[in-house]
Amino acid sequence: MGKDVGAASAPEFEPKVNLGQHADWFKGEVERALREADDPTAIRISNEEVKAKWSRQRAELVKRAGIFRD
To answer: What is the spatial distance between Cα 3 and Cα 49, in angstroms, rounded to a whole number?
Structure first.
């Protein structure tokens, strides 16, 4: 019989990270984010403010790159 080309144990298909470590890291990130979201002293930035800031930054980058839009 021929070589099993679909073998899941091929080195190129092995995970590059330890899945348990990644799960622990991800859980920690979620817990940190929830604590921050619940913090009444956290600085809140509205979506409108963020959109306006990114719009200004994007316009500046377009200007610097010499890209013109109609």
So the answer is: 58
Tokens linked to 60: 């500046």
Identity (one letter) of the amino acid at 31? E
> Using CA atoms, how far apart are residues 47 and 53, in angstroms rounded to an integer?
10
Q: What is the dihedral of CA 57, 62, 63, 69, to 10 degrees?
A: -120
Confidence at 52, pLDDT banded by 50, 70, 90? very high
| Helix residue ranges, H only, 1-70 | 19-38, 47-65
DSSP summary character for residue 13? G
pTM: 0.46
